[in-house]
Amino acid sequence: MRRAEARLIEVCAVVPTWTLPWYFRLFTARGLWLGQGEARRRYDRIAAEIPHHFPAQEVLLQQMSPDWSGTWEAMFEFTRRVAAWAPPGSPSKALIAKAHLERCITVGEKRAVAYLKQAQVQREVAEAAQGSVLHPAYRSGPERVDLHTTFGVLHAIAGADDSALPHFLALGSVVSAQTWSQLSGALLTKSAKARDRALKVGPR
Amino acid sequence: MIEGIVETEVNGIRTLLARGSGQRVSAGLTFRVGRADETLATSGITHLVEHLALHGRRLAEGHFNGETADVFTHFHIEGTAAGVVEHLNGVCRALGSLPVDRLETEKEILRTEATGRGPAPMLPAWRYGAQSYGLSSYQEIGLARLSAVDVEHWARTRFTRDNVVLWISAEELPVGFELDLPGGEPVPPPRPESVLPVPAWIPGPENLAVSYATVERSTAATVATRVLGRRLFVELQEKGGLSYAADAVYTPIDQSTAVITAVADCSPEKADALVGALVDVFAGLRYVRVPDEELDFAKASVCHPLLEQRAELFLATTAMNLLLGRRVLSQDELLAEIDAVTAADVQQVLETVWSGALTQVPAIGLSWAGVERAPGFRESASGEGAEYFSLGAPAEVLVVGEHGVTVRGEDYASTVAFRDCAGLLTWPDGARQLIDRDGFQVSIEPTLFDGLDPIALAAIDARVDSGVVLPMPRRSPEQIPQPSPVASLGRDRAASPTRARTWMVLWALLAGWIGFITVRTVSLTSSAANGGDATWEMVITAWAVLGLSLALGWWAVRRA
Question: Could you report the predicted ipTM of this complex, rounded to two decimals?
Fold first, then answer.
């Protein structure tokens, strides 16, 4: 990690506006425990070039979880600010769904269901989907499968099959391993069953 | 020589004269002596001489002051020609016969001055140890042992007419100078020698980053410092919004060496970002040639004072350069040198700065950026000797050996060898602190080690050169550390000291009661049985039980 960081310091010095090495430096910042302020500074360097850099936002989101010495408050505030800034159809509008997923898998199975069933959470997840992957202005990108999976799962666990339906249909035979593999026990069963039902029902 | 400055001589003293404007005369005596010439045991002696020399100097008009720096001591005055002459003559007279009856009073004034200054930056001590340029990090702890003979000797050997430059800004050279100073030798400043492998970092406060590096004195280095300062300002202050102040400063310290210091502050919650940004600023200057417009900007700001054509502004620096034996260039020569500095020169200087810097940063440190943390302690052989166990920290032991003193804990060990000891600080309550020339320390608190009595302390004192023993002022009882009772009871009982105490008292009562009953029973029995072997055995056993019970009870009460 230190060797990588040393090379990245050099690359960022030589081509300071190239966002890719700065994106990698979000991972080294996390791995080397450099802290929230430094991660944020690195993200800001990316945002200065590409204001709605979704992959960078996702990494920073993880950094903001309490696992990496962040706070839930800071994480949700970040997602809300990012969403408010992003244009319609931008994946950045979906970031809050990733935050809810992070949150629910840390609270344990039972409480995860209760957490996701809250009206406000379901509303925020639905709004995020409407603003991003379900928005007419959304242009398919590499994040598409993962976002649909996230939305499908967050609705399915809460028992909101209707809301989960368009996402599972959009996915068809695939899901995102990144999100799906985080599920276990009842969360996995509920998600799998809702997906089966959705694929059986098909488009209405 | 700077245009507009004439080099001359007044009573055997090298003199620089610049044509000043107006009636006021500004002048100074700059001596080539300062804190870096002292040792830890004499630290403060130059400042003390400066104070004594200025005592009793009263002037109807004008401002005067004295200043003791690392390698220079300045006496400066501004006033009428007559006033200036009278003052500097007086300073020299006083240096020849210091008012040593005021020694203790002036020491007290210096101590008060020190408390007003607050803690000194620690980087010099880390870099140079408790000697030469590192001494500026320490309090003037030598004051306590300085005698009239010491200060008079220091004045006679360092404040000489061969170790001073007089500089004057006036319409013409004032008349009446006596400047009666003893003859002597020019004394070159000590060589700055790092005691630390660099680059290195040390932890500091969460709101500050300071980089400290030595480079060869050059015009390129002054330009490079401006480039660095400007870049820090733009990246950390203007763009990053991290700092309220970010800059770099160039300070010559001897004939061929200068220190470049980069400083940036921040609010504590942005400490990690400050460190990251500092690393990136240096990387940006090391890996990429500085663009022309930045180089030109830096050159212009270095040139600016030269173009003002006011020679008197260069008097003090010229005096210092003369004392260091450095060739003094004219403005035109300097401008030509500045003009010749290239982006590659700047890059090379800043590479030297980065790879030779000692940097004080907030807690995240610089190890992630390839810079190692400076060792805070080191162990060497202290030889066979007595061991004293800590009453506070478990597993900590103090070894007073033949060659030195070591404090060893679970994951650290620090030794000060007696022959490397630069100062042995002694407090009236028995506390000792040994500081070696490289700045490593061992603190000894008699209250914290089992069996560390005055005899043991005397054994330490006896092995240290008496010339470095430094008496410290009495401490109030709150300042003397005590072992925490929880720690000394061990971990198990620490959980509930109150309950442990109750059990101990109960155990003591029980032991006493058992003992009493046993003795009473045996006494009654023996008096009834009229002696005999068996009875004697019983009596002895009974007394033994009583003794054991009382001992256990007493022990229990002590532990409680």
Answer: 0.88
Taking CA atoms, B349 is separated from A15, A34, B9, B282, B344, in Å, by 22, 28, 38, 11, 9
| Tokens linked to B386 | 């007595």
Counts for chain B of helices (H) and strands (E), in that order: 16, 20
What DSSP character marks residue B191? P
pLDDT digits (tens, 9 = 90+) for A19-55: 999 999 999 999 999 999 999 999 999 999 999 999 9
- CB B230, CB B281: distance < 8 Å: no
Cβ contact, residue pair A41, B277, below 8 Å:
yes
Torsion of CA B379, B384, B389, B395, to 10 degrees: 50
- Angle at the Cα of B150 from the Cα atoms of B149 and B155, rounded to 5 degrees: 100
Question: Residue B538 and residue B540: Cα distance in Å, rounded?
Answer: 5
Percent of chain A beyond pLDDT 70? 99
Contact A10 B287 (CB under 8 A): yes
pLDDT means over runs of 10, chain B (560 residues):
88 91 87 96 96 78 86 94 92 93 93 84 92 94 94 96 95 91 92 92 93 95 97 93 94 92 93 96 96 96 83 89 91 92 96 96 94 88 84 87 90 90 94 94 91 90 93 89 56 39 51 54 48 54 58 55
Residues 6+ apart with CB under 8 A from B332: B3
Q: Can you read off the two tokens belonging to residue A135?
A: 């928005």
- Is B273 an 8 Å CB contact of chain A? yes
User: Is B57 in contact with B87 (CB distance < 8 Å)?
Assistant: yes
Q: Is A5's CB within 8 Å of B369's CB?
A: yes
pTM above 0.80, yes or no: yes
DSSP strand pairing (B421-426 vs B432-436) = antiparallel
List residues bridging with B68 in a β-sheet. Answer: B73
Please judge whether A38 and B273 are an interchain contact, meaning their C-beta atoms are less than 8 angstroms apart: yes
User: Does B279 contact A at CB distance below 8 Å?
Assistant: yes
CA neighbor of A137 nearest in space, from A19, A47, A52, A198: A52
Q: Determine which helix (DSSP H) or strand (DSSP E) holds B348, and give its type and residue range.
A: helix B343-355
- Number of Cβ within 10 Å of residue A168's Cβ equals 25
Residue in B closest to A26 by C-alpha: B276
Are B58 and B73 in contact by the 8 Å Cβ rule? The answer is no
Total CB pairs under 8 A between chain A and B: 57
With a CB-CB cutoff of 8 Å, which residues 368-387 of chain B face chain A? 368-370
